[in-house]
Task: structure prediction
Amino acid sequence: MPYIKYFLSTGLLTILLFFCLNLFLQPLSGDLTRLGNFSENDFGWNAKQPKLAIAGQDKITPNVIVLGDSFSAGNVWQSVVMMKGDYRFLTFQWDNPECLEHWIISLKKDYPETQYVIVETVERAFINRFNTTQSTTTCIKLTPQKTEPHYTASKRVIDVSYTLSDPSYVIGATINSQRNFSQTTASGLTFVSPLNRNYLFSNKRSDLLLYYTDDNLKKDWRLDDLKKGVSNIKRMQESAKRNGIVLIIAVVPDKSTTYGGFFKSPQFEHRTPDVWEELNKQGINYINLKKILISSLDKTQDLYLPNDTHFSTKGFMLMGNAVAQSLKEIHSIGAEE
Result:
C-alpha cells in the first residue's frame, strides 16, 4: 500500500536526520551545553590541556583538610599543591552551611595531624553558605570523597559510540547553533553573552561566553549580608585557631565574574558587593583567586572550559599554585612568631 511505504520512508528519513544531527552536534560533555541546549561542536574545547597526575586521598594522616564543592571534587588543584611540599590532603563535600563550624573542629579531632582547613566555595553561593546561624544538633559525620590516582585528559575525546541525545536537546541545540547572539540571552539554565575578544577560548564560537544562570544571583546581594557572612567566617577563624587549626577561605569566582571585563555589555547595571574586598577588610586568611585568574586571562586560553562552569586543567593548576603559595606564606609567618 502506498501510504505504508510513505510512512516507512518518512520514518526512516526522520531517524536518519536525527542520527546525523547527533553526529553534527557531538556528544554532550559540558554542564553548560547540557543545561542550555548548546552543541559541543560549537562550545567544546579544542586546544590541548596539560596532562596532570591526580593523587589519591590521604585518609590516615592528612595535614590539610578541604571542605569544598564541585571545584574540589576531582582532587585536581589539591594534587598540584601536593607536588609543592609535604602536604597530605583529604577532601570532603559540604552542603549544610549550619554545620560548617562544627565540622572544622570535629575533623581536627578525627584527624589530629590537621594543620590547615581550606573551605572552598563558588562565589555565587557565598552569602547563602556563610550568612547562616551555626548549629551542632543536626550535623552528620562527613565521608571523604573517593579519588583514585589517574591523569587528566589533554584532548577532548569525541566518542561517536554514544547514546543518542534527547530529541528536545537536539532540536534546541540545532536552533541555537544557527542563532546570532548579539546580546546576553537566556537558554534553559545557561546565559550566552557576546564577548569583545575571540581568543579567550578555543571552541568554534569563541566570541560567545556560556555561564550559569545562578551567577546572576549577585545582582540582588546586599552589602550588609556580605559583611555578616564574612563576620561569621572571622568568628570561625578565631575558633579554629584556638583548636590549633589555620582556617583558609578559597572563593572561586563565577565564570561571568572572571570574564566580565570582556562582555560587550555589562552583566549588571550596578556594581555588586565584592567578596574578596570584604574578606580582606575583615582580616580573613583568604586566597584572592579573582585577582589571580583575571590577571592570567590574556595569556591563558580556556582558563575555564567554554562548555562548562568549571576550570580547565590550566585553571585548576593556577588555583593549586595559588593555594600552595598561600600555605607557604602562612607557614613562614607562623615560623617567625
The longest helix spans residues 2-25. The mean pLDDT is 91. The longest strand covers residues 116-122. The chain is about 40% helix and 15% strand.
